[in-house]
Amino acid sequence: MNRPAFSRYDSVRRHQVLIEAATQLFLEVGYSAASMNQLVERAGGSKSSIYAYFKNKEGLFVAVVEDMVRDILFPLHAIDLGSHSLEDNLLNIGNRTLTVLTSHKGLGLSRIVYAESVKLPEVGLAFYQHGPGRAIKELANYLQDLNNSKKITCEDPDSASEFFWGMLLHKPMLEGLCGTRRLLSAQQRKVHVARVVDTFVVSFIENHK
Q1: Considering the chain, what is the average pLDDT of its residues?
Q2: By the 8 A CB rule, do 107 and 101 touch?
Q3: I need a surface site. Which of 2, 8, 128, 181 has the fewest CB within 10 A?
Q4: Which long-range contacts (CB under 8 A, 24 or more apart) does 184-191 make?
Q5: Which of 46-55, 101-110, 126-135, 157-166 ranks highest by mean pLDDT?
Q6: Which residues contact 205 (CB under 8 A, 6 or more apart)?
């Protein structure tokens, strides 16, 4: 009797198990010291089965970063943007972003990138392209869509997106990475994001409906 093939659900679940195990591995030992053998010990299976999901260790790290970024950008894809105001959407994504990036996981992965990218520039490039670079592009596309539908006027969505992310992340990330203060509380995040969104709308958005 033939063995049943793994369903897509099984494959997706296995992929997520590997991502979660790899995230913890990278956070504990860093990028350079992490190995596929260690991942097998934690997640089970075999190296060949892991390579079926990820081409190499860099591909695995990219997948970890993409998983984090998907969580951040979820509000831009999962909601009906037409039924929510620009401010509400920006508040949503701002709060979600800070919750993720100033967490132990977010700060830990950022520290790994900063530590490794000098000797392994491909790690820094992969992180930027699949993390901050993608976030900037996604928000710029959203602003352009609002432009096209005449809901706002934003002369330069690309620059506006860069400024939004810069205002949102600069101070909280610096404080978190340098350990100069404890993680932001929910109320502190809310206040910071609201201030950023207000400044952003006044500075970059015209004919706002």
Answers
A1: 85
A2: yes
A3: 2
A4: 184/98, 184/102, 189/95, 189/98, 189/99, 189/102, 190/95
A5: 157-166
A6: 86, 152, 153, 154, 160
For each of the domains in the chain, give its residue range(s) and CATH number, in order of start: 57-204 (1.10.357.10)
Reduced to 3 states (helix: H, G, I; strand: E, B; else coil), residue 167 is: helix
- Unique residue bearing structure tokens 């400024």: 163
Q: How far apart are CA 104 and CA 100, in angstroms?
A: 9
Global pTM? Answer: 0.77
Alpha helices in 54-207 (DSSP H): 57-78, 86-101, 104-116, 121-130, 132-148, 157-178, 186-204
Interatomic CA distance for residues 118 and 95, integer angstroms: 31
Quick one: tokens of 164? Answer: 């939004």
pLDDT of residue 118: 85
Tokens (6 digits) for 206: 């015209």
SS3 10: helix
Average of per-residue pLDDT across 180-197: 89
> What integer is the mean pLDDT of 124-152?
88
- The structure tokens listed for 168 are 């949102």
Q: How far apart (Å, rounded) are the C-alpha atoms in residues 192 and 140?
A: 21
Cα–Cα distance for residue pair 128/113, rounded to 1 Å = 9
Assign 205 a pLDDT band (cuts: 50, 70, 90).
very high
Instruction: Evaluate whether 152 touches 145 at the Cβ level (below 8 Å).
Output: no
